[in-house]
Amino acid sequence: MKCLRVLQVGDIHFPEARKRALLDLKDQAFPKGVSSKVAIRPLQNVMRKIAAHCDKGIDGILVCGDLTSEGRIDGYKECIQYLTRLLEIDNPEKWPPAHFHVVPGNHDVCRDLCNCPDNDLFKKFEPLRSAWKDVNLEESFTLKFRRTDLVSGQRCRAAVFSLNSCIGCGESRHLPEEIRDELAEVLRKYELKHGLEKAFDVVGEKLDTPAFIVEDIDRLNSEIDSLDTDITPIVLAHHNILPQAVPRIAIYTEVLNAGLVRSRLSKCSRPVIYCHGHIHDNPIEVVSQSGHDKHSGLTCVAATELSYGFNIISIEYSKNQIPIGCIVDSFRIQNDGFVEKLDPKRISLQLSRNAAKVCSDDTLKFLSFIFPDFTRFGKALAEVRKKMDTNIQKRTLADALLEAEWLGLAEIVDRDDKIEHWQVRRILP
Q1: Of 11, 227, 261, 333, which has the fewest Cβ atoms less than 10 A away?
Q2: How far apart are CA 248 and CA 139, in angstroms?
Q3: Where are the domains of the chain?
Q4: DSSP H or E segment with residue 346
Q5: Are 129 and 108 contacting, i.e. CB atoms less than 8 angstroms apart?
Q6: Is residue 96 within 8 Å of 41, Cβ to Cβ?
Q7: Are 328 and 10 in contact (CB under 8 A)?
Q8: Which CATH number, 3.40.1010.20, 3.40.50.410, 3.60.21.10, 3.40.50.300, labels domain 2-172+207-350?
Q9: Does residue 367 contact residue 426 with C-beta atoms inside 8 Å?
């Protein structure tokens, strides 16, 4: 089937990520020169795998933020240089600006520029934008709402919307005036005594207030609803809009208007794919609204830290050029340093009742001649040829069955094997 593929890169956290090693070092007195030569560098292996896939055909790169930690601009710049060198993201012939998106993460925010007297909430992102400008990729960085259009080599289309979910990160809580100055002085002394890293745990994470700009949410909904039916909306932001599975006890670390975004996107006129990082985990969750049954709803795809792996999201399109299904291939580092592809996660983007609109007439015709019991593909092909009195190609019937499978109208066993080895059946309504 025709498809469009994007690479989803989760939190990177330079420079710590580059130093991380797969090494069970029990003997601290062991010669460091030797241990450094036998240690496995997970980030290095993951990046090699990514580069190999980019050479095979990726239509876009989505970077979910947190390129560094604790607002270190030197680490942020170092990460940009690292990505530029290995993925050639600064090569417009390989990656046109429309095909590359990067959003800020809460760890990227320059804390020294927070709480500006003029209430300019965007100053804390200026060093980040400047860092991308240095490599001629300023327009790829999302300060505010950004949209670009992707077209794959097979003419499949998607619209990528990237949003800044860190608008409140690093800002101070408005405590009562009688204690505000005293508390600020206490926190300042704590930082002087214990250092920025420990102070960040107090004044950075625990007092973060991630949020989206409401005007960006309104614009996002308006533009998604105006898209042609053959365009898949993909939304990129750093933060999750569903609570993480592990109970989290922290003050103001959930996105303040996550419920609003989740509600709006799940009510859109078409299926939406929401990509994020932040939680260092990789759940895939589908949200639908009662009464809004035109499609499968909102699919949230999380990416793990880059040192542990990445995702490739493939969106498959019907013969009528309608986005019909989403496949998330997750790649994860193993203890031996091998980057292994996990079992793919398949999410249908359309409902079976939409078959007449989504599928071609040929697909529905072919399906009517497929047996309700499992049979080999070759026998099914012969039956279709006999009933239609035409010599249809194997690939034509295979694509029709794949379309029908996305809609829950057919089942295929050994789908990833050669077509001749498939076992297929029609699912009775």
Answers
A1: 227
A2: 35
A3: 2-172+207-350, 354-426
A4: strand 345-348
A5: no
A6: no
A7: no
A8: 3.60.21.10
A9: yes
